[in-house]
Write a structure and sequence with these properties.
By secondary structure, the chain is mostly helical. The protein has seven helices and no strands. It has one domain. The longest helix is centred in the last third of the chain and has 30 residues.
């Protein structure tokens, strides 16, 4: 995909993602009360079956997971940039801090916390880590010679040489 088109698609995806994050985090109420009731029922059901699940734990994991796409998308946009990791993590921290400050200033029903900033930033770092791992894995796969069908070129010929050389 040409560079400009790829960049435009990544920017559109990032804008859509940030719009969803804004909708989730900058509404006067975090969610409908029925949503919390369902979440609490599921947590209670899991806890009754011995799963070590708490509401605070689910909320913490949700804060991490919410910013994983941030790390992936911004990481892709900054590909080839020096200090990419620092830029992604810094941008995530700044974005999350802006959300928490907006909640504090304009949404008295919301509870902004430093913990949310740390968890969101950690999620972006996880997203970037997953991106880097995927790129490394895909890069290795591209460099590894694949199996060559019978009679097809040098890979096959080298195999023939090795088989003949063995006693």
């Amino acid at each position: 995909m040409p560079g400009n088109r790829r960049r435009a698609l990544l920017l559109a995806a990032l804008a859509g993602y940030l719009a969803l994050v804004g909708r989730m985090t900058l509404r006067p109420e975090p969610a409908e009360p029925e949503t919390f009731d369902v979440v609490r029922e599921v947590i209670a059901w899991l806890a009754d079956r011995g799963a070590p699940v708490t509401y605070d734990g689910v909320e913490a994991v949700s804060n991490v997971l919410m910013f994983v796409p941030f790390g992936v998308l911004v990481g892709l946009l900054l590909e080839g940039t020096r200090q990419r990791a620092a830029l992604v993590v810094g941008a995530a921290c700044a974005t999350s801090t802006a959300i928490e400050l907006a909640q504090r200033a304009f949404l008295p029903s919301r509870v902004p916390t430093v913990q949310d900033v740390v968890l969101n930033t950690s999620g972006a770092a996880v997203g970037l880590g997953l991106l880097l791992a995927a790129q490394l894995w895909l890069g290795r796969r591209r460099r590894e010679p694949g199996p060559s069908p019978e009679g097809a070129g040098p890979a096959h010929e080298q195999g023939e040489i090795r088989r003949r050389a063995r006693p």
